[in-house]
Amino acid sequence: MFFLIHSDRYAEHQTPPGHPERPERAEVMDVVASRWRERGAEIVAPRSATPEQLARVHDPDYVRRIADTAGRSRALDPDTYTSPESFEIACLAAGAAIDAVERVMSGAHRAAMALVRPPGHHAERDRAMGFCLFNNVAAAAAHARAGGARKVAIVDYDVHHGNGTQHIFERDAGVLYISTHQYPYYPGTGAADEIGIEGGRGYTVNVPIAAGAVDEDYQLVFSKVIVPILLQFEPELVIVSAGFDAHERDPLGGMRLSTAAFAAMTAELRRVADECCRGRIVAVTEGGYDLPALRASIEAALEALSSAPDADAPWVPSGVQSTRGQVSAEAVAHALRGHWNL
């Protein structure tokens, strides 16, 4: 079974004119949700995350500071703004990710996607940044752990490194964080030798890839690094930080992924979930700033999530010769010697 969590209120998270997080992105999600509703998918309105749920991954004082922006427009950093409705919408975004985890962990659904704004993976415990107020995926993973899941894997294929998610879980061996990202690039974190701290060493897996990478580069790091580590970790739940800004048409990123690559990556993760955790997989949207590419990529990921377990979503050759994936895989294998068999 498959379902989406969606709300037609995302457009209320307003930003200054020309800002990448413009309201038109919410309209794309409206169109996608409507199309899948017509196909018979279950569309569920989100409920707000509670302060207690947010406090699992954010400092309570920080949650209160964001709550204090309700009813006001504020600039939190050069990239991150609030409108009078942003606190409410951010709570709905985190709540949607939590609701998706609850439904999948209960067995009511095999897979789910939460179509949310604002994104979340840059949000630190005590700081908003990179368009993100609350860390939606981190709140969802912490909720799964609080509900009894011993091991949760988060895979982040957004073009930017998820600094907030990494830092929230870098001491926790029960949460495996894997990120593919353009490097060097915003926010400046995510080097291969950032592998976690103390008891969490080895459970942060950064796969930094040079700008200009194509589908074959990502296919290689999935086959050589990401899938082998996930299978060794044996998670009880897979959560995907589904950012679509590594697309070749995206105006912010410098990668060259095709739309088909997002289907292929999602299908690879779905197969891991089928093998390790009875198909339990949740995707939560992050970035993506070319509107036609965003819609096509979300649709591709949804097709992969909703397909039968044995369905294929093949990688499509780009015809471009690139060694970026090989260079990245070798750096990761070196950094993680003694932690994983690569």
Short description:
The protein is of the alpha/beta class.
Descriptors:
single chain; 342 residues; alpha/beta; eight-stranded parallel beta sheet; two-stranded antiparallel ribbon; 10 helices; 10 strands; 13% strand; globular
Structural overview:
This protein has 10 helices and 10 strands. With 342 residues, the chain is of the alpha/beta class. The strands form 2 sheets. Strands 2-1-5-10-9-6-7-8 form an 8-stranded parallel β-sheet, with helices on both faces. Strands 3-4 form a two-stranded antiparallel sheet. The radius of gyration is 18 Å and the shape is globular.
Q: Helix-strand pattern, N to C?
A: EHEHHEEHEHEHEEHEHEHH
Strand line-up of the largest beta sheet: 2-1-5-10-9-6-7-8
Q: Percent helix among the residues?
A: 25-40%
The number of E-state strands comes to: 10
Poorly predicted segments: none
Radius of gyration: 18 Å
Binned strand content: 5-15%
What overall geometry do the principal axes of the alpha carbons give? globular
Largest sheet: 8 strands, parallel
Q: In terms of structural class, how would the helical and strand content be classed?
A: alpha/beta
Whole-number mean pLDDT = 93
Tally of helical segments: 10
Distance between the termini: 34 Å
